[in-house]
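Researcher: Good morning. I'm working through a list of sequences from a screen, and I'd like to move beyond sequence-only analysis. For each chain I'm collecting a predicted structure so we can compare shapes side by side. This is the next one on the list. No need for commentary yet; just the structure.
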Amino acid sequence: MSTKYKFNDPEGIYFVSFAVVGWIDVFTRQVYRDILLESLIFCRKEKGLMIHAWLIMSNHVHLIISRKGNQKLEDIMRDMKKYSAYRILKEIKESSTESRKEWMLYLFAKAGKQNSNNTNYQFWRQDNHPIELDFHSNMFEQKLNYLHENPVEAGLVKKASNYLYSSAIDYEEGKGLLEIDVLQ
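Model: Good morning. Structure tokens for this chain:
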């Protein structure tokens, strides 16, 4: 069994990236970003997910996470992705204003048919690409900076803390949209 891209240490801190199938720009709409945020908040409060840094871009997400309690990180991530996919797809299907509705549903259905684990639609790519981090290493700081600088590099903002859907504001100025678990 491969150990690449696995949550090997249950007590570890991980940098995790995951994307929408086909890199579809779903999160250009606030309603879909907010559904994802609700799912992360729920997992933080009810499942023991510890979020040390986060970022939602138009078609992918970066997190630095760990866990408290007994739930496995892979189970928390699976549940979060499953629930957020269900809610976002429901919102897309029921929307009377989503101009990309038919196109997105077609692509999600096509991805779902190519995956035997799905019955209808596939929203998220199946990989999480967790990379274990040592809090006291340069790699932790590199991943944190990469995560926060992503919207700056994409030309969306000039300063990382100006991007609303990120924990950069927590690290630079104060409280953002999602409470983070600061590492000491």
